[in-house]
Request: fold
Amino acid sequence: MKNLSRRKFVTHVGLGMGAAAILPTFSSFSSFQNKKLNIAICGLGRYGSLLSRSFVDSENCKLTGIITGTPSKAEKWKKEYGIPDKNVYNYQNFDSIVNNKDIDLVYVVLPNSMHKEYTIRAAEAGKHVIVEKPMALNALECKEMIDACKKNQVQLALGYRLHYEPHHQQIMRLGQNKILGQIRLIEVSLGYNIDNISPDDWHLKKSLSGGGPLMNLGVYCVQAGRYTLGEEPISVTAQFGPITKPELYKEVEESITWQMEFASGAVCTSSSSNRSSIDRYYASAEKGFIELSPAVSYGPFVGRTNQGKMNFPVINQQAAQMDGIAKFILQNKPLPDHIAGIEGFKDMKVIDAIYQAATTGKKVSLL
Ligand code: NAD
Reply:
């Protein structure tokens, strides 16, 4: 992925469509440019590693600690990122992080079933939290996480990188402000052909993942439908796809398709799959359209509307996300709802309903 520094990013956005709407979000960075939010990554797997490499493009975040159950990873990360021994934790001694002044925030990048426990333990240790998607196994768990953070007076953010990405910020602006009129139909899907997934992968174990591609990929589509319209769905219908590899899909779905209906009359249809590669977004509005493909992955995104090509730069999504969160925490300001725990709760409510609809074959009301 091609990265742009924050400075370069602002310059490029100045040339792009809808730049005026996006610039103010970033211009307030100047007031705390020299401050750093000290972050410990909890879970040094694939995505934890990708995040660690993103700090180089971050202006306001510093990797100062790690939490891992694997001593060999700890050694590697300590050397690579200059992390001192006193900032290295395992899952047993993690709670003693309460005494560590070098760590402001714990970024939970563990299998989904562990998100709740580590969010709550971090909150009880007085640390702010970023938790990866999907926020937890279900909406009830999300509520417990939100309550724990509130009780311990720490902030809870979601790892929703697309909220900081200029094409998606433009989608939110066009959709929510009805710039192209009312959006009536959205089609957004994300899938990967991963026939070679190991049968031991935690994504296939319901107790660890909570479900299949809906949990892992579909959460982005639920998000896109909700943030395009700025509305909550009022009902969902859903269908599981066929199981073509029964040796792998004993516990979770292999693919799923669902439909969300909104009070405005808009409909959003989506599929998520471990069988078919798809990564695209299309919104049909009264007076035009928005199209993005690739749309949800790490990009580079290509987008257009009926008014022309979307002219936004490729950014480091992970660095932009961490800086976007840090800007509020460093200024001691509450995170806006759309990037805070409540957003993950709203998505999980919809996901719970989608699973219920697919299992029962009935429309599920969210009113
Ligand atoms: P991964 O399997 O590569 O890493 C998981 C980490 O958790 C590993 O370091 C593993 O050692 C550790 N772990 C601790 N206990 C474990 C257990 N009981 N079983 C399995 N692993 C255990 O997974 P990942 O792809 O890094 O995903 C981690 C989280 O990040 C997930 O919630 C995933 O949805 C999310 N994620 C987000 C994005 C994004 O773009 N925002 C991308 C990928 C993954």
